[in-house]
Amino acid sequence: MKRAAAKHLIERYYHQLTEGCGNESCSNSWCASSAGFSRMDNNAAAVKALELYKGNAKLCDPHPSKKGTASAYLESGAHGNMKMNHKDVNSVRDNFKDVTYLTEEKVYEILEICAEKEDYSPLIRVIGRVFSSAEGLVQSFRRSKPHTKEELKSLQGKDEDKDEDEKEAAACSATAMEEEDSPTSSSSSSRLGEGSSGENDVQKLAPDEVSVDIEAVRRVYERLLSNEKIEAAFLNALVYLSPNVECDLTYHNVYSRDPNYLNLFVIVMENSNLHSPEYLEIALPQFCKAMSKLPLAAQAKLARLWSRYSAEQMRRMVETFQQLITYKVISNEFNSRNLVNDDDAVVAATKCLKIVYYANVLGGDLDVEHNEEEDEEPIPESSELTLQELLGEERRNKKGPRVDPLETEQGIRANDCRRPLIPFEEFVNEPLNEVLEMDKDYTFFKVETENKFSFMTCPFILNAVTKNLGLYYDNRIRMYSERRITVLYSLVQGQQLNPYLRLKVRRDHIIDDALVRLEMIAMENPADLKKQLYVEFEGEQGVDEGGVSKEFFQLVVEEIFNPDIGMFTYDERTKLFWFNPSSFENEGQYTLIGIVLGLAIYNNCILDVHFPMVVYRKLMGKKGTFRDLADANPVLFQSLKELLEYEGSVEDDMMITFQISQTDLFGNPLMYDLRENGDKIPVTNENRKEFVAQYSDYMLNKSVEKQFKAFRRGFHMVTNESPLKYLFRPEEIELLICGSRNLDFLALEETTEYDGGYNRDSRIIKEFWETLHSFGEEQKRLFLQFTTGTDRAPVGGLGKLKMIIAKNGPDTDRLPTSHTCFNVLLLPEYSSKEKLRERLLKAITYAKGFGML
């Protein structure tokens, strides 16, 4: 029942108890006109009216002979069944001036009157007044709660001590039930008396609850937004409201004094027209600026509240902020002089989008329990630390990468979310990524000043290409810093030090040479791993400007992941590698492999590594669980899934226990008890979930614990000071290490540049692309290997690869050559397409080694 109707009924019960219905022969025992009725005072009548309403007691109709207060009230109150004359409407319209906040019933009441007279100006004025007032909006659309027995007793006890007139008693009885959680104010306190206060309401609300009736707000918007004039009232009110709210939050600390202030943002965000063009110019930017001023606790509460919304409602809010960001980006010309970071509307909308992002994380499928243990031994600091401090180069982030404050406030991490409510990709804004000056943004990220905003603090809005560029700047600046420190250190020490991480290796002993050298560096001075890598193949003249390093990494990976070595096992079905739990190699070898992976990221090299996604999740701090078996070991995953879904008796039909078996490298069975005396504990329908969880934990975590910890430790030796964890999700880490598997050579053709006399319309260039597009998948990969040093596409695809084709003389029998460091193909101007194809295939098939041209 609607609250206005409830109030109306309670007042009728009250008048029935105090004045009666006017029928002298009335048989209703709870009517004052009844012969056997015992008179009661006004306070007792008010409490009794509440009880009669709750018990749905009989209610008398007013007798025609009854004159006075009750009949006058009933005649004026029965507006639903009687037509109002013009004078009545004018008086009601005048009364609307006293409306300082709105309820769903009040809106419908005014709407009904306006519809009857076909004049919506009174409603428009009320909406304009309430929705432009922070105080009015905060009080509006409150949730009603039924009284507890204790509250009724308290109300009765207080009423017995008062001697109010009948009007005050009737109002108290009706509105005490209607608006229990209304804030203390001059208008509401006269209705509620001492029965409730804002402070009591705050104590009663759960951490993720607000006192606003969200469903009522949605119904009101649905009714009103179809009317263009009324919609304009919402728009204009928001323009007046937002600056005042921003001022309240910035200077008056209003949220700490009244947490119900959050109601204002909840109500406004329910407006489904916020993303329409009319709002994008002024109203929405100002409102976003106000919302971005919310304190951290308020933002966290909003995120928890919105996390309970449906995917459709979440998507509407995302689209609202994304629409504003896109509109501002395309309507302005942002460049290195006019930075998008300086646009208040874009920055504010991004900060608001962050709240929705964490709501999306909280509302998704969370796994907050299965976290990897931190490394027991801290990663060694550089021996140059003292000198760095003397030179003002003290390291940042010694305790690891930064963590978002809102993430800390929520007590969760974005990586805890296995599946968000809506895909993370919907939070990426491509137009923003296109105009973002990443070198400037990275500077703001590192300086961490309040005056300059960095979009790297909101990595969800950036695509993998942009984040990779930010990581590239971070790595390069760290390399230059290490180089500068080394030079200064050599001046102080008086001895020559190498500013690079120099590796000299033999092709036929690449693992021995590389891993021994890296092991010495890791033991003596791990900070050297953060220097720029410089690889030299013994007996070859190639100068490493990037291309030699690419081939070095590829050769190392091929050797390390050779199943014959026994460090990793290879699954023919999934084409994936996994740590060998029975490997004879020591932990140091796995540490060195982790270093190689970290160095590849640090030096912007792509590796042909094939790990299941759970490896990247574990690198980001999450343990493997049953669902990770789906790609790591799909056969085992399917078997365990069938066990969980089996409808018969597991114990009788399957006869399995908490002891499992594996085979080592030589095919010998190895038994492992998931629980103590596991061979004596049968798996039943009741404990099968525990069995599956422990089996998965053993396969993905416990069985390879030593190997993986060593591997992770090596990886963190290189990346521990990097914003890698802060910027990237596990699936993006895989993209970062392995590159894109999608080879789009049409995109490569679009972005390729030409030099030495060639252009896009040259005969040889047209024949070259026709030839390349006719190659098979393996031949295309060989071409990429020949030209760029790797057969994988970079983050973002081949369209992000800046390849240059340069003229290398007239027609000749010489083969094409390349500068893999700079992705340059040197192509002679062959006389025919057939000769071009033959020469190119021979070059890419038999290419190995480096020389000087």
Automatic annotation (TrEMBL):
Keyword hit for Magnesium: no
Composition bias, Basic and acidic residues: 147-160
Active-site residue numbers: 821
CDD domains found in the cross-reference section: HECTc
One term of GO molecular function: zinc ion binding
Gene3D superfamilies referenced in this protein's UniProt entry, alphabetically: Hect, E3 ligase catalytic domain, Hect, E3 ligase catalytic domains, Ubiquitin-protein ligase E3A, N-terminal zinc-binding domain (AZUL)
Protein name: Ubiquitin-protein ligase E3A
Source organism: Salarias fasciatus
Underlying gene: LOC115383816
